[in-house]
C-alpha cells in the first residue's frame, strides 16, 4: 500500500511519569538521551504535519522542551493515552475531520514508515473510524501467550475481534503447531492506532464496555460501540516497546550496537 503523506495528520505521544513497572521510564537515559527523545525523533522522521507530546508531569514538559519538542500539559486524571490525546486535540482546537496517530512514549524503535502507513490506511478507508496494524505470528508459544494480543479480520481487512486468547481456535488440529504447518494463520495486534478525531472524541466520552473490561483491551470499546477498525500487515517489523528493566536493557543494547 502507499504510505504517501496524508493531509492534516498529527502524531501525539502520550507520556506519563508514573509507569507501574518502570517509574519515570520515559525520562531514563537511553544511549545518552531520554527515552522519550528517541520516540519523538522517530515521529519526526515521519511525514506528519505535527508531533506533540502530551503529558501530565512538569518534569516531562521540561525535558521535552529542552530537546525541542512541542508539549501540551494535560490532566492527571486520565485513565488511558487515548483520553490524554483527546484532551490534547481539544486544547489545540483540531477539527473532527483530522487524523491523529497515537504513538506510545515507550516505543523508541518505532519505524517512521509504519506511522505514515497507519495514517494512510485510515485516510484510504472512509468506511472505518480507526486503523491499526498487525504482524504474522510464526511461533505456537506466542499464539498461546495472553500478553500477545491476537486479531481476526474480515475479507475487507476490518477487525472482527481482538483477544488475548488464541483466536482463531484451530479445532480440527491436535496442536497449534500442527495447525500452523497446515496453513492456519494468526495475527498479532500491534498497538499503533490512527483515529479520526470525531471517533476518538466519541470513544473517549463513553464508559468502558463489558468486553473491554473482560479482555482489558481498549480497542474493544470502539467495536462494542459499532466502530470499524481497518487492519493491515505492518510494512516493517515493529520491535516491542519498553515495559520493564529487562526491556530497557534490550533496547539499550540494540541502539548502541546499531548506532541509532
General description of the model:
The protein is an alpha/beta fold and 260 residues long. Helices cover 33% and strands 22% of the residues. Strands 5-4-1-6-10-7-11 form a 7-stranded mixed sheet, sandwiched between helices. Strands 2-3 form a two-stranded antiparallel sheet. Strands 8-9 form a two-stranded antiparallel ribbon. Helix 3 (81-91) packs across helix 7 (197-204). The chain is globular, with a radius of gyration of 18 Å.
List the helices and strands and how they pair.
Layout: E1 9-15, E2 29-30, E3 33-34, H1 35-44, E4 50-55, H2 58-66, E5 70-73, H3 81-91, E6 99-102, H4 112-123, E7 130-136, H5 140-144, E8 150-153, E9 159-163, H6 176-181, E10 187-196, H7 197-204, H8 210-215, H9 219-224, E11 229-233, H10 245-258
Parallel strand pairs: 1-4, 1-6, 4-5, 7-11
Antiparallel strand pairs: 2-3, 6-10, 7-10, 8-9
Short characterization:
The chain is of the alpha/beta class and 260 residues long. A hairpin with a 5-residue loop joins strand 8 and strand 9.
Keywords:
260 residues; alpha/beta; two-stranded antiparallel ribbon; 11 strands; 33% helix
Amino acid at each position: 500500500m502507499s504510505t504517501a503523506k496524508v493531509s492534516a495528520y498529527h502524531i501525539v505521544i502520550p507520556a506519563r511519569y508514573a509507569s507501574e513497572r518502570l517509574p519515570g521510564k520515559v525520562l531514563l537515559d537511553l544511549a545518552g538521551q531520554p527515552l522519550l527523545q528517541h520516540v519523538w525523533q522517530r515521529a519526526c522522521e515521519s511525514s506528519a504535519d505535527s508531533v506533540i507530546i502530551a503529558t501530565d508531569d512538569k518534569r516531562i514538559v521540561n525535558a521535552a522542551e529542552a530537546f525541542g519538542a512541542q508539549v501540551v500539559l494535560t490532566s492527571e486524571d486520565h485513565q488511558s493515552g487515548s483520553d490524554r490525546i483527546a484532551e490534547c486535540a481539544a486544547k489545540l482546537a483540531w477539527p473532527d475531520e483530522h487524523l491523529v496517530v497515537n504513538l506510545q512514549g515507550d516505543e523508541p524503535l518505532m519505524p517512521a514508515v509504519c506511522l505514515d502507513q497507519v495514517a494512510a490506511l485510515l485516510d484510504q478507508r472512509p468506511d472505518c473510524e480507526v486503523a491499526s496494524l498487525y504482524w504474522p505470528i510464526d511461533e505456537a508459544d506466542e499464539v498461546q501467550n495472553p500478553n500477545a494480543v491476537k486479531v481476526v479480520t474480515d475479507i475487507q481487512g476490518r477487525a472482527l475481534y481482538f483477544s488475548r486468547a488464541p483466536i482463531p481456535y484451530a479445532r480440527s488440529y491436535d496442536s497449534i503447531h500442527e495447525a500452523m504447518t497446515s496453513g492456519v494463520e494468526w495475527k498479532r495486534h500491534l498497538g499503533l492506532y490512527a483515529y479520526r478525531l470525531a471517533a476518538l472524541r466519541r470513544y473517549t466520552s463513553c464508559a468502558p464496555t463489558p468486553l473491554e473490561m473482560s479482555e482489558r483491551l481498549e480497542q474493544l470499546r470502539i467495536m462494542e460501540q459499532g466502530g470499524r477498525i481497518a487492519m493491515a500487515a505492518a510494512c516493517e517489523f515493529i520491535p516491542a516497546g519498553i515495559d520493564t528493566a529487562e526491556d530497557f536493557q534490550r533496547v539499550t543494547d540494540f541502539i548502541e550496537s546499531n548506532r541509532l
